[in-house]
Amino acid sequence: MEFDSGSAELNQRIAEWLRWDKNEKTLEEVRELARRSEWKVLGDRLLQRLTFGTAGLRGVMQAGFNAMNDLVVIQSAQGLAKYLLQCYPSAEDRSRGVVLGYDGRYNSKRFAELSACVFLHENIPVWLYSRTVATPFVPFAVLELKCLAGIMVTASHNPKEDNGYKVYWTNSAQIIPPHDKNIQTSIMENLEPLESSWNLELLLSDKLNDPYDQMVELYFRKLQANVPQPFIRDYNAASPLRFVYSAMHGVGYPFVVKAFECARLPAVVAVPEQRDPDPEFRTVKFPNPEEGKSSLVLSMQLANETGCDVILANDPDADRLACAEKDAKGEWRVFSGNELGALLGWWAIRCYREQYPDRSLSDCYLIASTVSSKMCRSIANVDGLNFIETLTGFKWMGNKSVELLSQGKTVLFAFEEAIGFMFSPTVLDKDGVSAACHLATMACYLRATSNQSLADKLNELYDIYGFHCTLASYHFCYEPPVMERIFKRIRNMGPARDAQQDENYPQTVGAGRFKIADVRDLTTGYDSSQPDGRAVLPTSKSSQMITFSFENGAVVTLRTSGTEPKIKYYAEMCAQPGQRDWNGSKATLREMVDCIVEELLQPKENNLTPRSD
Q1: Residue pLDDT, tens place only, 70-121
Q2: Superfamily of domain 53-210
Q3: Catalytic residue flag (residue 156)
Q4: Strand segments (E) across 355-467
Q5: 272 preceded by cis ω (within 30°)?
Q6: Out of 5, 76, 115, 156, which one is annotated catalytic?
Q7: Model pTM greater than 0.85?
Q8: Most buried residue among 24, 154, 469, 509 by CB atoms closer than 10 A?
């Protein structure tokens, strides 16, 4: 095929694609774009590559090196396989193999099978789940089978057009530096697909095994052991509570059913339209329970019809959990991730004390990401535990957990505000299945022992540990240069340049009413609260993240998403125990956030689209 894009580099990339791709659909996609001289489109798709971000690889499914497709998956698997052999050169290590899982999205199973073929060709045994699984079952299998690595093919709660490739390292936590960069380098050194990489007949190899039955049985045995047996016997089995459950068109339903069975919880009432995997996600605009009431419309209808008081919903790969509860007025309250984090953090301590009444809490840890509520820190301070803050993303909390466990510490709970919860280190990643089981058990316990709802318990925790109110939302921004411009402007808004730093951050918002005490910029590494002006947490120039601490106790973080075209903001006001003007705290925080959005993000000037609900 003859063509000339006017760019030697683009010509080379087009030629490589036409030579390497053996998927007729995506091959024809590039051919047709070249025939129509769509050089701008081809440049966007072929001159950049998907790289490992917050959650591994994630992108739209279409032709191009900057998207998810057969060729990019093969290249990624080839790079990962070579890197594993470099890190683990002995035949004994190689025999430990890798584990692969996939969700119910379009192409997920095929991407997992193509990856399996790459590893089998390198004589690396493969544990490939024979059917769709919840994401937590991949890191769980890495840990239990002592594998070299794990791959989960999923785009979690992204739109139906997307897919992704999440990689877990030998310690069963998601990859962090330097592995992500080293794998990317290895991918670039192994771009040309081997003939064998396309050969699905390799799936007949005796080095391919299905871990499904073994891992499912073991997972639920360990989950059951993590729930105090008196709670199962005395509260769950006899509870009058009923729970509506939505799998959000994903893979969670059979696992949540099994979780409830093993904890003797009442059987869930499943939303039938959303119960089974459906790659079209037909009933929701976004298959993301984090969106709140807009994603739970069918759940609320079913709960109203069946008299259920609590709704539980997973995202499509079942590593996140949302919860809503009907209040005394019959209105539905959707809990935020921060509120659920407070409840589950308290519950993790309650369960630990029940199971180990003679043990001190001094070696126990609660963990949260830096953009999540500090409520767990307040609980830890009062109750004598340890609290650790990490960067955003469970990859950091998982790896911090590995480090603590290796020191003989006890990790009780980790969470992030994006409804991700790790209840015990059985899985070193967020797990929506175990979280559903523990949250339901907590609800049954509260009803039986104190006739409290989840909302009642949350208010009690605020009384004891101090009221924490949070606001978190986002604006869509589809142009990366605009994101860059917004954050560059924020770094140069101050009234006078400080000779000690390159940037010049704002000192107030709201026409001087809200004074900023400290600024931490994890993009540049600056932190005004540190004596040397350097941030303690790791920094990254590849994403934007600035945190403002205000004199009135509010903390507000602005950051770009690692997986979606969004600028996110997270705000929290922390009151002291006994401080009772909760509505005043909420109103002040709302006013501050409105000022920050208008003054710093400038949505109108930058053509930003607010969250729909």
Answers
A1: 999 999 999 999 999 999 999 999 999 999 999 999 999 999 999 999 999 9
A2: Alpha-D-Glucose-1,6-Bisphosphate, subunit A, domain 3 (3.40.120.10)
A3: yes
A4: 364-369, 386-390, 410-416, 420-423
A5: no
A6: 156
A7: yes
A8: 154
